[in-house]
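Support request, please re-run this one:
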Amino acid sequence: MQFCNLAIFYSWNSIVSVIINIENFSKSYGEIKAVNNISFSINKGEMFGLVGPDGAGKTTTIRTLCGLLKPDSGNISLLNYDIIKNKKDIQNNIGYLSQKFSLYEDLSIDENIEFFAEIHNVKNYKERRNELLEFTRLIEFRNRQAGRLSGGMKQKLALACSLIHKPIILFLDEPTTGVDPVSRRDFWKILSNLLKEEITIFMSTPYLDEAERCNRVAMMNNGKLIALDSPQNVKESINKKVLEIVCDDVRNAAKLIKDNLEINVQLFGDRINMISDNADADYRNIALLMNKNNIKIVDHRINIPSLENVFIHLVNNRN
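Re-run finished. Output below.
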């Protein structure tokens, strides 16, 4: 690893647990406020998830933390280094996998990793490269051009390139978007193994089921943080349940519930989901309404909210 001051690093590494600190960070593009006065910190060894829809401010946040964008206001530090004053020192110790595949498609897997090793001044990289190829299960494809790889294999190659210099923090910007389910599962296995090496992982994702795997999540919408805690605590924070109903005419049933009981509903195939303060009482009222309109309820369940339920509830409340 490349450090400007090894003594400073080892002192930090043994004493301080906060590895990223963000205070009152804002960033605009013209009149558009991409990130609006957010603050949080991340501890060493965490897998931290930044979740939200497109345009929430996730990519802007990650690119700023990597020193690729300059904040309009606020203070950001990584490894006790200021992001503006010590950008190069920070970039020597982080890995970044961008949202879009940005490696050289006419180079082989081996050549791409070699190129990134040279950028980071890693001299004896061959053993490390072999380890990464074994780690990502790409070793048998090492001579294949990057342009001829599948989407999942491209992401694994990009990950290997971002790890060649043994970073302390790894930034992943929506790493599994557009990746098939099998490759997505493999990618998560690789990330789990990275945590065993005490690498801190900061990732953004639009997939709330992925965020469930993180130690902590920050939910972001329209440039603002709307929740920040462990997935379990975020789900419990709204103090509500999810009432799920399966019936033989979901669209008409959903309209009746919305019009007559003023409950927000979501349709998932043959199911209707509702966030409820009193799920038992709501179900009794819905059952009466369905019976009156000759709609048969096949099944119903009362569940703990998912992160998706919580996110939609928080956004609707703010709106």
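Residues 1-15 have pLDDT under 50 and may be disordered. The chain has two domains: 6-229, 238-318.
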